[in-house]
Structure to design on (139 residues):
């Protein structure tokens, strides 16, 4: 189990999946406690999906997170500087993210990551969110 203070991607902040996890990774990295295998993906992958959805710069977000504040305050800051998605857009975002890896262009990545993580036999892991939670001991 990888317990290093980063929450599930399925936990919501302001109704958004993944945002809180991205903030956690920034904070844990600033403390020097983010595992090596996570560092190369900072600002990439799902982080990039999230910042592009909110129309903010990852480096600027990281600076803001490291200044302190609650998740909700940081999300409000993002919404003021980037874009403020509608409830419908948030719903679409959440459904898109929740299903990543299930019958889409990253399905092969999910299969490879399951194999590398010793989880290839886990038929219950059908999405990247499920893989992350299983890989980090939550599922």
């Amino acid at each position: 189990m990888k317990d290093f203070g980063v929450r599930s991607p399925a936990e919501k902040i302001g109704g958004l999946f993944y945002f809180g996890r991205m903030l956690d990774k920034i904070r844990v990295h600033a403390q020097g406690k983010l595992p090596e295998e996570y560092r190369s993906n900072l600002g990439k992958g799902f982080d990039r999906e999230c910042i592009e959805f909110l129309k903010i710069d990852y480096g600027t977000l990281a600076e803001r997170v490291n200044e302190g504040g609650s998740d909700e305050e940081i999300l409000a800051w993002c919404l003021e500087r980037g874009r403020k998605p509608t409830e419908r857009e948030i719903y679409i975002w959440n459904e898109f993210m929740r299903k990543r890896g299930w019958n889409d262009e990253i399905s092969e990545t999910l299969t490879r990551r399951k194999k590398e993580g010793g989880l290839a036999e886990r038929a219950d892991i059908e999405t990247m969110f499920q893989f992350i939670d299983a890989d980090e001991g939550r599922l």
Remarks:
- The mean pLDDT is 95.
- The longest helix spans residues 19-30.
